[in-house]
Amino acid sequence: MINRYPLWKNLLILTVALCGLYYAAPNLYAPDPALQIAGASSAQEIDERILTRAGTALDEAGIDYFGEALQNDGKSALFRLSDREQQLRAQAILSRALGDGFIVALNLAPTTPDWLLDGGATPMKLGLDLSGGVHFKLEVDVDAATERKLTQYETGIQKRLREERIRGRVSLEGRQVAMQFRSEDEREAARREVVDLYPELFLDRVDEGDTWSLYAQVTEQTIKQVIDYAVAQNLTTIRNRVNELGVSEPLVQRQGSNRIVVELPGIQDTAEAKRILGKVANLEFRLVAEANAPVSQRQRFEYRSADRGGMTEWLERDVIITGESVSNAQAGFDQNGQPNVMISLDGEGGMLMSRATRANIKRRMGVLFIERKYRTRYEQGEAGEESVVRVPYDEKKLLTAPVIQSALGAQFQITGLDNPAEASELALMLRAGALAAPITFVEERTVGPSLGAENIRLGMKSVQAGLALVVIFMMLYYRVFGVAAVVALAGNLVLLVGVMSILGATLTLPGIAGIVLTVGMAVDANVLIFARIREEIVGGASPQTAINSGFERAIVTILDANITTLIVAIILYAVGTGPVKGFAVTLSVGILTSMFSSIMGTRALINLVYGGRRVKTLSIGGVGRVAATTPGGSS
Amino acid sequence: MKIIPFMKWRWLAVALSGIALLTAVVSLGLKQLNWGLDFTGGTLVEVAYSDSADLVEVRETLAREGYEGAVVVSFGTDRDVLVRLPDGYSDEQGAVMVEKLRGATEMSVELRRIEFVGPQVGEELRDDGGIAMLTALGLVMLYVAFRFQIKFALGAVIALAHDVVFTLGFFSLTGLEFDLTVLAALLAVIGYSLNDTIVVSDRIRENLRKIRRSSPSEVIDISLSETLGRTLVTSLTTLLVLAALALFGGEMIFGFAIALLVGVAVGTYSSMYVAATTLLQLGVSKEDVMVPEREGADQEGLIP
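Predict the joint structure of the above. Result:
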């Protein structure tokens, strides 16, 4: 039978439509403004007592809240607020009531009902231009990192040659270490040492008169490794610091070879955010004080890890080296298969370390982790108004205090760790404390919450207005066929939102513009098909044949036209950043869903209306009347 | 169906396009584009005053505080003020300036947005944008050459370049700000205009195979007449939604909507006149499209 879809095809379309509806549905539920409370250190548990304390503070301030609950096994707690306007004030009140040990973050808590959550349906995330927040782009100074690595090679080679009593001049020339010797033998001896010390260097021998030169070149690959390492290290450090800022869903991501993108929804105090992101952590290596040392020469420090919470250690006041001398720390295993951490120091650090440890074998050495933190103080002004003052201070805590087994040099290991997890945690902290390559802010975008809300409102308004205009036009111009196209268009919108939600895509303002554009362009496929059907009727085909060949013949054109647009959308995605990427995503997804809905969906609807029965005229506007008066038109 | 003699008027169209493109190129050369912050680098601050803001006063405050080269304009309403600082101020100045503005007035000043773009980022974006545009044109030409034939590909690309230059010229002449979203819109224009061109080319190819006794010029006239209804309807629906976007979408999306409005309008024209005229001048004929015999046979079979 012509123009009848088999049952399975109708069922397929129905299933796709229902799935789309199901996964798009969470976006209908507006999220509650909320505050999330977490401990400043990962060891801090949130319990009922803290919940009550926070609740009382909010009650006293007259802020309405509901649905307070513990989350993540007592790692955090959530308070939903009735009024978005009060969110900032509530945050200040809670921060004050709970003190510096806790982080209070602005949050938007989803209100997706359980029957949707059970199927894994979640709402789309909102981009910063819609939710408000800060976007930073940081650039890691890779030149500085490369420079440091080169200096490290230079001093390393100098030191080794001195130790091996090989006389020669060592200097840095661009990206290579140049060495000059008096004889070929000396150069050969030096070459062996350099190969042994740094196998990754590319060596080149040059003879100039009576000087025998050796050039150790740093390969592109090594430079790339140095850059990767510097960026990765900064990435880790920034992730740790972002957690301190009290943002519920931060994004820290590497972009290109040396950039890092940080997105902090809900944050507006950019100065504060920058202070925390840009702050420097450091390390200090000191000997553990002997029991009989005078108090004036020793200091007491707490352990940083939660397992040894409360335990302290007395360290000498003299600092052997600081984090600036540490060039790398890597977790691994020693010869016996026990977890360890390998630490590499630069040349000068190695010298200081060996001098300090030579005479102190069997004593212990403590490693201090130093972080710049802020204490919040509330000051009463003259007029009685309250101002918040943040006072910086250095927090020094002990990471570890192992026994010195032998004299240490530029490379040594910490062994006797309990498990690989402890080793990697320690290596991470050592790296975070070591001086990373400097970073600069190359881009910053802050969107206030009111602008974000306004963008959403305006975006929705344009989608509605655009949709209404297209719907009216299509129904007037194509009659019954127009209605089918409009239903398919609505289905397309639902599918588009559903697919974006499943993909976990972020909705941005240009993304909304992409949706509006899709509404306008999605009907194109239907317009093409309907134009063909009209032509077929004018050409004398019967209505049923006209429908069938109209659809069949338009498909090739639709595919060609859409594939080329898809190519452009993909390029847009590849080169665009942030919001523009959002536009490219909606455009691409829109093209795909619109092909499904306007070819399959519309066809199914038209088949339901006209399929499988004798039809004299088609209600397709314009030429429909022509068809009725043409003798061959209805057969 | 009435056949409209499109190609009879093609020299008029060529002249019109020529004048328009010349104006665009001259304007781009003399006035260039009003590059947005994304491309120039610099700092932009938008604040909302609780009541209508006195721009003169804001300018005085900024001059007193030593912000040289600050441009102050109202944005959307008379309460919203936009301040743009040229490249060279540090990334901290945006937040500092908001504090200074707050200190200088009795009204409450709400921060709407701060944007800071470093100079090297802007330069990169400009380069990347140009490369993206060229890549898009190149890939599209390849696809069309593969699916159709090289003459069609040239026609399509010339039509696309025509639309891009025209829209750029429009932005140069009007002095509308050219930011990242406008660049995105321009790429979308390429996609859209291409859509149109493909539909027209598809019909020309079909008719070249089918209609035996007509000259290429007549075949093109027939094809354009046949697709005219579809072209106009699709452009109309797209222009309708774009108008909605320009009217209701707010200031941040205005440039984007305008770029697309201009691009889509000129794209509709170019897919009919520029692409088809190029095709005709390149001497398109039946032989160019006769290769895939089986596909042709398939299509013939569908006609009752």
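The domain at 143-223 of chain A is CATH 3.30.70 (Alpha-Beta Plaits).
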